[in-house]
Write a structure and sequence with these properties.
This protein is an alpha/beta fold and about 500 residues long. It has two domains: about 220 residues, Rossmann fold, CATH 3.40.50.720; about 200 residues, Jelly Rolls, CATH 2.60.120. Strand 3, helix 4 and strand 4 form a beta-alpha-beta unit. It is elongated. The protein binds NADP nicotinamide-adenine-dinucleotide phosphate. NADP nicotinamide-adenine-dinucleotide phosphate binds next to loops.
Length: about 500
């Protein structure tokens, strides 16, 4: 009905829908009812960030102005995850629309007096807090919290965009369509037979008013009901800090904060990083190795060992480490597990090409003191903080050490790690938190410097060596696929492993 209203007013209308069959019916109905033939379908699945990007590419290629963007699509009681691993309701209703709007911002700014309409809901006014963790997993039983949060996030986005677009010709407003006889649930479908709710035409009034009414010219940041009456926003929806935080997180979740980042495939120009090199395994062997690790190594949770270690940490007062271990056990998600005892990992450590590069760097005798399988699940971030792999409380500084990063699945700019080149570093970085166990610190990195970070890109079986001077962190995985890698910590035998490092995890070995 919103599209019909726009078509009747003479707009060239694009229906962005996931079902071509349903869209074809709607297009023909709208053309007939409005007498306007400029009504088209463009494919868009909001539950896939990839589809949103493709939609924007297709729309921009048409070289048309964009005067009205109605973020209308929504789901209520569905369950699951989006293609990239976000919770389905929130990912569709909010994150897909965030990316769509973000990627169309330039287009909107270039077009005269353009208007963005967020179709929210009055339920958004009931949000009490944003539980971020819920957005990166499957829909819980209480799906209503996710629906409420998704619409509340649209209100925060409306406010944030209003602030950011103050000096432009673009306005952003939100609407609550009312209780509409739509298809969103069986209840909504039946409501008209029970004499409840309003018709789709009435439900579209608020959106059309925001899109076309003269009264809305230059007006931004409002939340209107289906009669275009303003709804007042609770304090939480006006929280600038929260809106900014959501904006930053959304940029990260959609990979937009990295738009200008450089990706490297040739590392020879950088200090502290050597490679990339290839293990001697064929691509097919690499796939088999990764599958074995996924199917046989990772599910074998080292429960007994982890519980013993947690108790050890607790006794020593290292509550953070104990908590992390117990959390991994509870969630059965081993982001970082030690598996030197697994034959398949041992097979990787024995690779001739790897040993040749390690010997070039460390000399003939190469000691491996720790191995870590890193699993970066979609939509989550493994070790999100900038750090160096420097362990003063675990090793004596009596020789060289190096880390090996082996890609077991594809490492892309959207799921791997990034580092800061020495050339870009103009000041010493200040430690934020220091881990009492290893002596390693997370570092404060100014935003201007973060902007200059370089992304690592590797094929399965490729590896890099990096020194403990390299400042790096893993990136939030927005690729939709699990990333698996193996990191080996290697030293010269002259380096002593201090007693603090528990050999219960694994014993140092000569390679
Ligand atoms: N109805 C109400 O009482 C009410 C109240 C408050 C707010 N709202 C909001 O109003 C908006 C419109 O909903 P409605 O009531 O008209 O429900 P609807 O009849 O179910 O329409 C929702 C539309 O969103 C589309 N959609 C769902 N997931 C999509 C995806 N991943 N990609 C692209 N399109 C997708 C659906 O496409 P398919 O046909 O392919 O499923 C459908 O055309 C929603 O944002 C809803 O939250 C509705």
């Amino acid at each position: 009905m919103t599209a019909l209203g726009l078509a009747k007013a003479g707009y060239h209308v694009f229906l962005a829908c996931r079902s071509e069959t349903k869209a074809a019916k709607a297009v023909s109905y709208i053309r007939q009812s409005s007498g306007n033939n400029q009504v088209e379908f463009l494919s868009l699945n909001l539950a896939s960030l990839e589809s949103v990007r493709e939609f924007v590419r297709q729309f921009v290629a048409r070289k048309l102005p964009l005067h009205v963007l109605v973020n209308n699509a929504g789901i209520f009681n569905k369950s699951g995850t989006t293609q990239e691993g976000f919770e389905l309701i929130w990912g569709t209703n909010y994150l897909g629309h965030f990316l769509l709007t973000y990627l169309l911002l330039d287009k909107l700014k270039q077009s005269e007096q353009s208007r963005v309409i967020m179709v929210a809901s009055d339920l958004a006014l009931q949000a009490q807090e944003l539980r971020w963790k819920l957005f990166v997993k499957k829909t819980p039983l209480n799906f209503l919290e996710l629906y409420t949060a998704s619409k509340f996030c649209l209100l925060l986005l409306t406010a944030e965009l209003t602030r950011q677009l103050k000096e432009t010709d673009v306005t952003v407003n939100a609407v609550h369509p009312g209780f509409v006889h739509s298809n969103i649930t069986v209840g909504h479908r039946l409501s008209k037979f029970l004499g409840l709710g309003i018709s789709p035409e009435q439900g579209a009034y608020g959106s059309l008013f925001c899109a076309m009414a003269q009264e809305m010219e230059g007006v931004s940041g409002k939340f209107l009901d289906h009669q275009a009456q303003e709804l007042s926003l609770p304090k939480l929806a006006q929280d600038e800090g929260l809106a900014k935080e959501l904006w930053e997180k959304s940029l990260c979740w959609t990979g937009c904060n990295f738009q200008n980042r450089v990706s490297a495939t040739n590392y020879s120009q950088y200090n502290h990083i050597v490679g990339s090199h290839r293990l001697g395994f064929t691509p097919q062997e690499m796939t088999e190795i990764a599958n074995t690790i996924f199917q046989e190594v990772l599910p074998k949770s080292p429960d007994r060992l982890s519980i013993l270690n947690s108790l050890g940490f607790l006794l020593k007062g290292e509550f953070g480490s104990a908590f992390l271990l117990l959390l991994q056990l509870f969630k059965q998600e081993f982001h970082m597990e030690r598996h030197l005892d697994s034959s398949v990992v041992w097979q990787l450590c024995q690779d001739e090409n790897l040993l040749k590069e390690l010997r070039k760097y460390l000399g003939e005798e190469v000691a491996l003191w720790r191995s870590e399988l890193w699993v970066n699940y979609p939509a989550q971030q493994l070790i999100p903080f900038w750090h160096r792999d420097y362990y003063p409380k675990l090793l004596t500084p009596t020789g060289k050490t190096v880390s090996v990063y082996i890609a077991l699945t594809e490492v892309t700019e959207f799921n791997g790690f990034e580092f800061i080149d020495d050339e870009a570093m103009t000041q010493d970085l200040v430690p934020k938190i220091t881990d009492p166990f290893s002596g390693n610190s997370f570092l404060e990195v100014p935003e201007e410097l973060e902007e200059k970070a370089i992304r690592v890109v590797l094929q399965p079986g490729e590896f890099l060596l990096f020194t403990d001077d390299l400042v790096h962190r893993s990136v939030c995985n927005t690729s939709g696929k699990v990333r698996l890698s193996l990191t080996l910590r290697v030293t010269q035998p002259s380096v002593k492993i201090l007693r603090r490092y528990s050999p219960k995890f694994q014993k140092p070995v000569l390679l």
